[in-house]
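Side project, low priority. Logging it here so it doesn't get lost.
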Amino acid sequence: MAENKPRVLLVEDTRSLAVVYEQYLRQEGYEVMSADCGQRAIELMLAQPPTVVLLDLELPDMSGMDILQQITEQQLPSAVVVITAHGSVDVAVEAMRLGAFDFLTKPFDGKRLCATVRNAVNHQQLSFLVAQYRENFERSSFAGFIGASLPMQAVYRIIESAAPSKATVFITGESGTGKEVCAEAIHQCSPRSERPFIALNCAAIPHDLMESEIFGHVKGSFTGAQGDRKGAASLADGGTLFLDEICEMDLDLQSKLLRFIQTGTLQRVGSGKLETVDVRFVCATNRDPLAEVKAGRFREDLYYRLHVIPLSLPPLRERGEDILLLARNLLQNYAREENKRFKDFDAEAARVLLDYPWPGNVRELQNVVRNIVVLNDSELVSSAILPPPLNGGRSLQAGAALATATGGVAPAQANAPIRPLWLVEKETIEQAIASCDGNIPKAAALLEISPSTIYRKKQSWEEASRV
């Protein structure tokens, strides 16, 4: 059918030559349009851009070079083959500079014409495929992620492929790589996007409350259960349940979770009634789940039930230029929030960002950029205003902890007596919790420890105070 044929626009004012060229091209299977002046050629191109333009440079109303320049400036998806009887190196170079694909000097035969047009068609089709690839697989952002690196392109493709199904996705990656962002992206790209997305951090909730948080409870089922309460699984009915830090879950609760996954039914704590819910599971951990299985801390049958589609998030240090892409995005957002002038990083600051290993990943980068914006104000971030450890000093968290331990000054400046380490640790953790308005997971993230560590230490301090 004609619509499947490559279209060729022949711009030639000598009618006898145009008829001959048209015949050659139609015999090759091309759909041919003709124009005998520049104005008509422009009208045809803008109405329906052809695959190839055969462009005579000597036209009655304008120069073919002007048309070539317009094609290039408007980025029309057409390969241009310039035709002229005045062949010279200068004309050829100028035509190529303006974007011409090839150059034909009159006179030429049908074989040369068809071979040149065939090459131009192949070139244009390949250019189209490359553009499609870049659009689909070289994205600089996707569903809440920012990043154009190859590792992130692989992540985007897995999310797109996995999202439409109900299969469980098991996300792994270091702390701060964006596991919850990934889980939300899977949900938003899925048919369940209009239903709830419920996230539950298995490390941030005391073990004795975890079952109630997942499955809910009925009134009177335990001390403090003053009414019936839905759990995360019921709240996520029809949507997605995200279990973060799944390897922190107790073994006995893992067996109940396995039964829930297999049957789609649950029992609230203290109830004998079965409830049926429809949820899509996404889980995540910053540990090696298979190593946890081998160590006996994670059920093997649950691992194989959950580990259907593995998705590994790359650490920031392996994402190359994504570091600057993220940093610039964060800088502009924070500058807007704080009403500061920052626009970009200077060359030296950018080099420092790229060279730093980012053990805390994107979360650490967020903290660093926020620190820069809050404490400084200029158009460019210089290396001089980068906070520790990027400026060679100790980390922000370590510095804060040491300052707390020494009454608010650096150890070298403090004359305070040495105090028990457990007390220093206790005060540091309590100050972090207070600074985060009681948000223990947030305090744990800033201290670079697991929330379960804080809960465990708080419990030990309370038990010690009762002795």
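Brief comment: The longest helix spans residues 110-137.
Revisit when time allows.
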